[in-house]
Amino acid sequence: MSGAIQSLSRAAAILRLLAGGERRLGLSEVATGLGLAKGTAHGILRTLQQEGFVEQDPDSGKYQLGAELLRLGQSYLDVHELRARALVWADDLARAAGETVYLGVLHQRGVLVVHHVFRPDDSRQVLEVGSMQPLHATALGKVLLAYDPVARGELGDGPWEAFTPRTVTEPAALDAQCALVRERGWADAVEETWEGVASVAALIQDRRRNPVGAVCVSGPVETVCEGGAVRPSLVASVRTAARAISRDLGAHRF
Amino acid sequence: MSGAIQSLSRAAAILRLLAGGERRLGLSEVATGLGLAKGTAHGILRTLQQEGFVEQDPDSGKYQLGAELLRLGQSYLDVHELRARALVWADDLARAAGETVYLGVLHQRGVLVVHHVFRPDDSRQVLEVGSMQPLHATALGKVLLAYDPVARGELGDGPWEAFTPRTVTEPAALDAQCALVRERGWADAVEETWEGVASVAALIQDRRRNPVGAVCVSGPVETVCEGGAVRPSLVASVRTAARAISRDLGAHRF
DNA sequence: TGGAGGGGTCGGCATCGCCGACCGGTGGTC
DNA sequence: GACCACCGGTCGGCGATGCCGACCCCTCCA
C-alpha cells in the first residue's frame, strides 16, 4: 500500500474538480483550485484531452469532462456482476410493487445507484443511474450502514446534513436505527431525504455472505405507507427480491 | 500539442483494456497486454484503485473498472449542454413518432449515444446511453459523416464491417450517400445495422452552425417504412426536432 | 492605450516513476 | 506430497520524465 503515482492522483483530482463544479473551468481555475502550477495543470489537461477524458470548449478555452468517461462508465455497468444478476429481479419487483426500484452499492461516502427501474406508469421520470444518495438519509444507505462496517467508517461522526425535519442527523440515533435494521432485516426511510417520499430497502450478499449492495423500493408516502408505517407487503417483496439476487450471486441458501 | 504525460496515457490505456475485455483481467495480463513491466502496471493499477477508477476482486486479485467512472460519466451528462437542451424535444419526438429516439455525438470512430428515449410502449428495453454505434451503418453516423469532416477523417478508407447484407462497406458508395444526405438534409439506414430495424436522423448545429450531434428515430421496418422507403411524416418530425434543438443551442434562425 | 488576466509554451533541474530482480502464496501435475 | 509454474505484489537504484516558474501572445476592459 505504498505511494501513489503523483500525476495520476492529480489527474483524478482534476476530473473530480470538473465533475463537481456545475460549469466549465478555465486552466487557471483548475491550477489554483488544486494548488498546482499552471504549466503542470496544463500538461495533465492536455493528456486527459488527448485521451478523451476532458474536452475543451473551442471558444472560451475552458475545460469540461469528456465523452470517454461516459463510455467507460457504461462499460463498468456491463461487467458489473451484481447489476447483471439483479436486472430481471428488479424489473419484477417494480412491477409487483408498482413503484420505483433502485439498486445501490457503497461508493466512497454515499450510495451509488447502479440500476434504476422506473415506476410502471407513464409519468415523466429521469434516470438516476450513476448518481449518489446520502448514506444516512435513505433506506439503501441505512442498509449498507447496518451491515457494512466500511460504510459506517466512511460516514464518520456527524452530525450530518438534514434534508428534511425527519432526517436523522445524530450518530446515536442512527446507530440505534442500524441495530433495528439488523434485527428486522430491512430498512426504511420515510420523508428523510425528500418530503413526501418513502422507501424500503434490503441487503444483497455475495457468495461469502459479504454485503455487496442493496435493493430498494421508493415512492410517495401515500402509496408506500399505511397508517404511518411502510406497507408490510412491500417489505416482503423487497426482502424476497434481495434474497433472490443474493442467491443468484451464489450466497448459500438459508 | 507537445508530448503527453506517460503515466497518464498508460493509465488510460489500462482503463480501455479493462473496458474492452468482457471479463476481469489479472495484473500479468494487463502488463503483457500493453507491453509494460509488471511493477509499472502494478503502480498504475494501485493508484487507479485508490482513486476508485478500478476495483480489485478480493478473491482472485483480478482487476475491473471502478464505480467512480460511472459517477463521472453521469457528471459528464449533467454538464452536457446539447443533451440538456434536447431532453424535452427528444421526449416529444418519441411520443409523436411512437418510436425509440437516440441522441448521438461523434466520439473517436463511432457515435456515442448521449440520450435515449424508450419507445412509448410497454416492451422491455435496455438503456443504451453510453454505448457506441458504427459511423458507416447507422442514420446517426451517416449524418455526422456527411456534415463533420472530422468524422469522415476518423473513419478512414474502408472497406468496413458488414453487419447485414445491406450495410454499405465501400468508400465510394458511402460518400455518394453522404452527398445525398447533404442534399436532402437527412439520413436513413434501413436494415444496415440490424435486420428489421430502420432509422432516420437529422443534424444538430450549435450557434456557429458547427455540427455537434444528431437526433434519430429508430424502430421496426414495418412501422418506420412504407413501400420500401422511410415514412415522410417521420422524416418531417425528426427534422423539426433537430431544428428545434439547434435553435435552443443558439443557431441562427433560417 | 495600457494593464490585467486569460490560455499556452519552454527549458533546466531534480524528482518521480520505471524497470527487472526478487518474494511468498497457490493451484495444478505427476 | 514434492515439485514447479505462475500468480500478485514489493523494492531499490538509476535515469528518463514530468514538474515548475518565467515568459509569450491574445483578448477584454477601463
UniProtKB/TrEMBL annotation, chains A, B:
<dbReference type="Pfam" id="PF09339">
    <property type="entry name" value="HTH_IclR"/>
</dbReference>
<dbReference type="InterPro" id="IPR029016">
    <property type="entry name" value="GAF-like_dom_sf"/>
</dbReference>
<dbReference type="InterPro" id="IPR036390">
    <property type="entry name" value="WH_DNA-bd_sf"/>
</dbReference>
<keyword id="KW-0319">Glycerol metabolism</keyword>
<dbReference type="GO" id="GO:0003677">
    <property type="term" value="F:DNA binding"/>
</dbReference>
<dbReference type="InterPro" id="IPR050707">
    <property type="entry name" value="HTH_MetabolicPath_Reg"/>
</dbReference>
<dbReference type="Pfam" id="PF01614">
    <property type="entry name" value="IclR_C"/>
</dbReference>
<keyword id="KW-0238">DNA-binding</keyword>
<keyword id="KW-0805">Transcription regulation</keyword>
<keyword id="KW-0010">Activator</keyword>
<dbReference type="GO" id="GO:0045892">
    <property type="term" value="P:negative regulation of DNA-templated transcription"/>
</dbReference>
<dbReference type="InterPro" id="IPR005471">
    <property type="entry name" value="Tscrpt_reg_IclR_N"/>
</dbReference>
<dbReference type="GO" id="GO:0006071">
    <property type="term" value="P:glycerol metabolic process"/>
</dbReference>
<feature type="domain" description="HTH iclR-type">
    <location>
        <begin position="5"/>
        <end position="67"/>
    </location>
</feature>
<dbReference type="GO" id="GO:0003700">
    <property type="term" value="F:DNA-binding transcription factor activity"/>
</dbReference>
<dbReference type="InterPro" id="IPR014757">
    <property type="entry name" value="Tscrpt_reg_IclR_C"/>
</dbReference>
<feature type="domain" description="IclR-ED">
    <location>
        <begin position="68"/>
        <end position="251"/>
    </location>
</feature>
<protein>
    <recommendedName>
        <fullName>Glycerol operon regulatory protein</fullName>
    </recommendedName>
</protein>
<dbReference type="InterPro" id="IPR036388">
    <property type="entry name" value="WH-like_DNA-bd_sf"/>
</dbReference>
<keyword id="KW-0804">Transcription</keyword>
<comment type="function">
    <text>May be an activator protein for the gylABX operon.</text>
</comment>
